[in-house]
What does this fold into?
Amino acid sequence: MKIQRIEATPYPDQRPGTSGLRKKVTVFQKPAYLELFIQAIFEVLPERHGATLVLGGDGRYYNDHAIQIILRMAAANGFARVVVGRRGILCTPAVSHLIRHRKTLGGIILTASHNPAGPDHDFGVKYNAANGGPAPEPLTERIWEVSKTLHSYQIIEATQAIDLQTPGSTGLGDMIVEIIDSTADYIRLMEGIFDFDALSRLLQSPSFRMRYDALNAVTGPYAQDLFEKRLGAPQGSVVQGTPLPDFGGLHPDPNLIYGKSLVDPMFRPGAPDFGAASDGDGDRHMILGRQFFVSPCDSLAVILAHAHRIPHYRGNVRGTARSLPTSQAVDAVAETLGIAVYETPTGWKYFGDLMDAGRVTFCGEESFGAGSSHIREKDGLWAVLFWLSILADTGKGVRDIVYDLWQRHGRHYFSRHDFENLPTDNAETLYDDLQKGLDKLPGHSIMDTTILSADAFAYRNPIDGSVTDHQGIRIVLADTSRIVVRLSGTGTGGATLRLYFERVMRGPGRLELDLQTTLSPLIQFAYALTDIRRRTGRTAPDVIT
Ligand code: VG1
Ligand code: CO
It folds into this structure.
């Protein structure tokens, strides 16, 4: 088959953010936009000749089209083999696993995660490296540099579309396209971690009911194969289980606002014992008990606290890591276990080095993401299986598990306020002005405590000594309360400003307070300090988690 070199005009805006390049579908549809970005990735991978690549996505609109293009480009760029999920479907954790399991050069994940899908919404491309984790920042910066001056891409001539339906191998030029079952390898990985007999007993017990809501996104087939077929949960335990190109119009961001299709039934009388949902690409998780919501920061702390119950982790927990804004609930658990806690910038790419060096076993973020060194991404279904294993082993319910945590370590009240779609200049000026005034804050009193420190977070990677600065503003109080402010790196329209609040309360009568009221002194202080209402013209945040 003939390799064609197609001339094109480079784009200046292909800089990957927190998690890959995310843009509106209409941007990806500009002439050669997708192709040039893919070529830029290939250009920074000189080892691609004769190598294997994993390819799949969350099934959103443009997934199919992009897969056909990327396969033809991979063949033209010297890859020997591309491993593709059937129908182009692979959840993010499954890609991470396949890269490691098959020892491939890397993988391309087509996803904009929890952002809405469809012709008028978002698409994204993410490159993961040989360790299975998101490309580290030096690599994503090189991709961007290359993209700015790339005037052509290579592709083999189109014949008919490659059939993605049937597992098996076919040739494409000199390259092999290997279509694999999307779920099988991932489920085998989970079998090696968890006690599937114990899980089967729980899910088949007549006194236990679960509801898993896949929000019409990528985890549907995984959850059906795992919970219903493999573990024997009653049919119908998985709802909205077919990945749809527009996610059925849902915003597959599992939180109390966008996850209504799960939250509402879990708060009704007669609700199931356990509810869970994941995001568009399957790396996030939300856990609910009957009429009870588990804060993602608490979920991470619970996972660490109960790790000894899971065969794979028993006696085998190194350190733990959390992103800057994530609450210190996990730190409290780590302290009792006598293990290290690393604080990293937002985004999973910073955890990879710590895991590769054997320093941490569990990692997590406040944005409903937790994971372990079994792969190099956060993992939604793994977290759900972890919770189910805790329930199976303790015989307790979700609420009791979280109460045990609070009683032991205090409750870390945590909330995030997002102001979305702000004019970029406006948000950046607000952030810069806040940063300029940080020196004056230490010593200032809030509530019955004072500000200890206020600075812009810079992360020093303990493995290679590299420093990543400007990763968010943090204001730390003497009683360990914190305010963190940062700008999102995953949005596709304007800027999103995120404010994070954390305050720990201990002892009887202080564990069941209203979340926003408890945090309100911190919230009021941050709103006044940033003058956010006047500067943005917004009276309230768009999303509160
Ligand atoms: C957000 C979250 C961050 C997460 C990232 C990717 O980033 O805050 O914790 O790692 O999304 O998750 P940002 O820069 O918008 O705050 V996913 O599930 O969208 O790949
Ligand atoms: Co995601």
In short: The chain has a mean pLDDT of 94.
